[in-house]
Amino acid sequence: MQSVSLATISLVPFLSPKMTTYPARPQDRNAWILARRGQKNRLAPSLPYASLWEEEIGEGGDSVSTATLFLTNRECPYRCLMCDLWQNTLDETVPLGAIPAQIRDALSTLAPARQIKLYNAGSFFDPKAIPPDDYPAIAHEIAGFERVIVECHPAFLGKRTLTFQQMLKGPLEVAMGLETAHPQVLEMLNKRITLDSFRKAAATLAKNSIALRVFILLRPPFLSEEEGLFWAKRSLDFAFECGASVCCVIPVRGGNGAMEQLSAEGVYSPPRIASLEEAVLYGLSLGQGRVFADLWDIERFAETPEDHATLSRLDHLNRTQRIPNT
Ligand code: SF4
Fold first, then answer.
1. What is the mean pLDDT of residues 40-65?
2. I need a surface site. Which of 99, 280, 281, 285 has the fewest CB within 10 A?
3. Class for domain 173-326, per CATH?
4. What are the residue ranges spanned by the domains of the chain?
């Protein structure tokens, strides 16, 4: 394993302001990001904006049927540079009862599953997104699942997390976006977390027997292809050091307006599919947990026959979690 101490990385600004119009001052970034947004999709508060049934390798190595729900709710209060999830959110908090109704609606259309992912384009424990008074009804709707997975920004973890956990029959898993272990790029992503705050949030989960899933970006803005791959690997190291049982590597996509601007300025390019495969193989080689490639809409990255062959191998890696013999 390539060893780099995160503490030794220079914190001297590495991008000249001349390279990008993206503000150097954190307080100017929200406005810059918001100014480049397009329209949101029109959504009904009574319906999830998507749902799907999939199989995922579980902790024990068996294939676990999974219902993944994309809940419609109020937009996340953060303004991350690379985020496009706001496109499927509302401006207002949903009425009480709407989230349990969305869950009922989605589950009535999906095949039975053992575990459920409740993804909400934000933080499950943001009280303006998912009303805490709905937790008992939500727990009731999902009582038949062996495992519950939600997503959350580290800042929203706390008492509400433990309250919800106690209502569940099975284990709770929380997915948190580390995004990148590159300290400067993490700061520039406007997520308002640091490696230290992420580590502390992970420790809180571990202390309360809540499993950790970590989202990692492959090639965020401001990094070359080589740097992007290097930092995806360091991010996998960091996530597993924090106790992650599973990591998901996500190729950074355009589509939110801000990324298009950064692309035009030459400080963002989509990653290569070959880098995604290398990152996943590296993560699996650590032997510390499951590593998945996020293959949603991945065809947009595939340009050559070799890319399509790599996608096929990535799909196999996702389904087996086994590095093939070379
Ligand atoms: S915390 Fe998550 S949902 Fe919120 S803006 Fe950032 S990436 Fe998007």
1. 97
2. 285
3. alpha beta
4. 40-170, 173-326
